[in-house]
């Protein structure tokens, strides 16, 4: 059985106790094999270069740091609280937008020389690839890069960094599964479950509409090929398509849906984790790279560099679970998993490296016809 992590309400006490004080954070979280880090105001790890102090000092004279992201103010709160313990003079202003809207708004404002984002956060692989191709990222070599796994280095040369690695997988209402049914642990399991009782599951399996997450489905198609499309077609009458994970979650709580596939952790509303469960997929497990980069038009580039480095640092990565996302820095795995939350390495161990579908920028996603191919495939599913 795949891991079912506790939801926010059941892990908040342990996690807040672990991260309440950011100074000496490693010692507070029980790490014995890494040096403790003094996180006093304006400080930074001792492995940073000496000239890093110039970035810190330059940030003091900059305008507020504007971040266009796909995260709410509530999501940002624990991260920015930690960040401002280090850099209290930096005002961070976040704007919650859609995965592609973050780029579209930036392009529109930059075209008219209007004030715009200093940094962008999104999971849209195609959006980031276009941003890179257009030369809109400001290059930055983070001193944290050597502490991060090699797969995350691929886009660092362009100035793009992964802040969290988030699974999209299976959510199911365990009270609605037929008696004796085994909870699904793969896409193939969901297909088999639906085929075992098509009348029961008619209209009870949710997923994203093709245009809502076409990039994710492009990566899944590349991994599973016809197994994906054949499986989706076989579930035809059972499938319902939603524009957001929130809509799926609400309808799962009400009992309208029994299962959601390729859904994020946020699909499970707080307080419903006693009956809504999240399961990993051992045939193709999508991992969404939640990435951050500094824009070419940034008016507070030094502040943006400090924010990126904090998000990648041990202190920042250990705060990622408080926004219900998944950290990936290897050195924080033990501390994070002690709180009952997931770390990417634990997910990989659970499903196997071959099952991981890492979803980051790639030129292939922008090949002519790829978007239309996925959208047309979903149009056929929805019309069947």
From TrEMBL:
Gene3D superfamilies reported in the protein's UniProt record: Periplasmic binding protein-like II (3.40.190.10)
Pfam families with a match to the protein in the record: SBP_bac_1
GO cellular component: outer membrane-bounded periplasmic space
PANTHER family: PHOSPHOGLYCERATE TRANSPORT REGULATORY PROTEIN PGTC (PTHR30006:SF25), THIAMINE-BINDING PERIPLASMIC PROTEIN-RELATED (PTHR30006)
Signal peptide extent: 1-27
Keywords: Signal
UniProt organism field: Mycolicibacterium hippocampi
Superkingdom assignment: Bacteria
The UniProt record lists the keyword Signal: yes
Protein name: ABC transporter substrate-binding protein
Lineage of the organism: Bacteria, Bacillati, Actinomycetota, Actinomycetes, Mycobacteriales
